């Protein structure tokens, strides 16, 4: 299965990583994320310096992103800009600045929308319809005649495992069944690009495994999938290639291992408000991952309060060791916060266990 090749523009990415290429997989070799020449073939999905305002709120900030195939996970906390990015990719929103294209065609153009299948995170059903009728209606709205609509409906239902349950009314469906019907309508017109917003939400473990296998099969057929999720752990089972969003920017792009390695090499600054700051500073300086400690640094939130700014490498190991230190010494820690905006978001996922926000 090919990984998607993504590139993040330096102004919009705190960490710019090369695209992945697994040896022996037939994938293109990794190329630098900085100043990469445009391929002769138009990328399947391309964001070029895209910004989006909602009134005075900046939802996306100078995002540049390129997808050419395979499966890519899109990860970010609520409000990070994921939904805005996906709606632009599907032609539902226009950027305030910049350009979004699908195979070189403006995503707002209906010609581009023919190439995209969309599975939204929210339900928008005709609840009195059966699942089969709903999918068939969607096929007719795609422009297929009755016979072709029937054929595609049955094929899509079979693909998502809903053939035997499709005659029940949608209002009686479980969350997992509703997710499958949304996925079925996204597959009707055999799109090159699939935009899936939280497709695994509400799916039981067996159903989740079935859908993961379906996504991998679609990617093996040459489809490009962009899958948004709050669950980094779930995406790790599907693909190791992710784009992490934070506050409207692409904070990191690449494989999870690349991101972890880069964080290890990229020292993180952490604000620690604690009692006995000078005593704690001496203890911190004995830790192997601590590079420097600034004592009594003024905190923007509470000026004059005692505190430290700690610069440390290997964040995961540092936070684990600091937790042990706080317990052993009985420290009264009032604040513990990464000061690097992008690292703040990434650490929340990479250090947060399951990856849920």
In short:
The chain has 357 residues and is α/β, with parallel strands linked by helices. The protein has helices at 82-89, 110-113, 131-141, 146-159, 175-187, 205-220, 232-238, 256-265, 277-284, 315-329, 341-350, and strands at residues 45-54, 57-67, 70-76, 97-102, 105-106, 116-119, 193-197, 224-229, 241-246, 249-255, 268-274, 290-295, 308-312, 333-338. Helix content is 32%, strand content 25%.
Largest sheet: 6 strands, mixed
Topology pattern, helix = H, strand = E: EEEHEEHEHHHEHEHEEHEHEEHEH
Count the strands? 14
Shape: elongated
User: DSSP strand (E) fraction?
Assistant: 15-25%
| SS summary, helix count | 11
Radius of gyration: 23 Å
Share of helix, binned: 25-40%
| Chain-averaged pLDDT | 81
Roughly how many Å apart are the termini?
A: 29 Å
Largest sheet, spatial ordering of strands? 6-7-8-3-9-10
Instruction: Give the uncertain stretches in residue-range form.
Output: 1-39, 353-357
Q: In terms of structural class, how would the helical and strand content be classed? A: alpha/beta
């Amino acid at each position: 299965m090919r990984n998607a090749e993504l590139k993040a523009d330096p102004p919009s990415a705190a960490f710019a990583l090369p695209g992945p290429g697994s040896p022996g997989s037939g994938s293109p070799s990794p190329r630098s994320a900085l100043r990469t020449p445009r391929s002769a073939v138009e990328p399947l999905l391309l964001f070029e310096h895209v910004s989006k305002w909602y009134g005075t709120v900046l939802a996306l900030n100078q995002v540049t992103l390129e997808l050419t195939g395979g499966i890519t996970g899109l990860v970010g906390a609520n409000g990070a800009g994921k939904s805005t990015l996906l709606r632009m990719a599907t032609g539902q929103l226009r950027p305030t600045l910049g350009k979004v294209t699908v195979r070189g065609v403006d995503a707002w153009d209906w010609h581009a929308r023919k190439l995209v299948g969309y599975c939204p995170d929210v339900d928008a059903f005709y609840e009195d319809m059966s699942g089969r009728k709903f999918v068939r209606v969607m096929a007719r709205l795609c422009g297929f005649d009755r016979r072709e609509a029937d054929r595609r409906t049955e094929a899509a239902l079979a693909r998502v495992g809903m053939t035997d349950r499709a005659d029940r009314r949608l209002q009686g469906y479980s969350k997992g069944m509703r997710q499958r019907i949304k996925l079925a309508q996204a597959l009707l017109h055999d799109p090159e690009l699939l935009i899936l917003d939280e497709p695994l939400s509400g799916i039981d473990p067996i159903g989740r495994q079935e859908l993961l296998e379906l996504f991998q099969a679609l990617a093996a057929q040459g489809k490009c999938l962009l899958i948004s999720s709050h669950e980094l752990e779930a995406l790790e089972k599907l693909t190791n290639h992710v784009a992490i969003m934070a506050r409207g920017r692409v904070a990191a792009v690449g494989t999870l291992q690349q991101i972890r390695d880069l964080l290890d090499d990229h020292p993180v600054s952490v604000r620690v408000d604690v009692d006995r700051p000078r005593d704690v500073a001496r203890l911190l300086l004995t830790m192997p991952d601590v590079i420097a400690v600034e004592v009594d640094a003024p905190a923007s939130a509470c000026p004059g309060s005692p505190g430290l700014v700690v610069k440390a490498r290997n964040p995961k190991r540092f936070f684990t060791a600091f937790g042990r230190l706080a317990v052993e010494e009985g420290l009264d820690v009032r604040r513990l916060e990464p000061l690097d905006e992008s690292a703040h978001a990434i650490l929340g996922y990479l250090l947060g266990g399951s990856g849920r926000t």
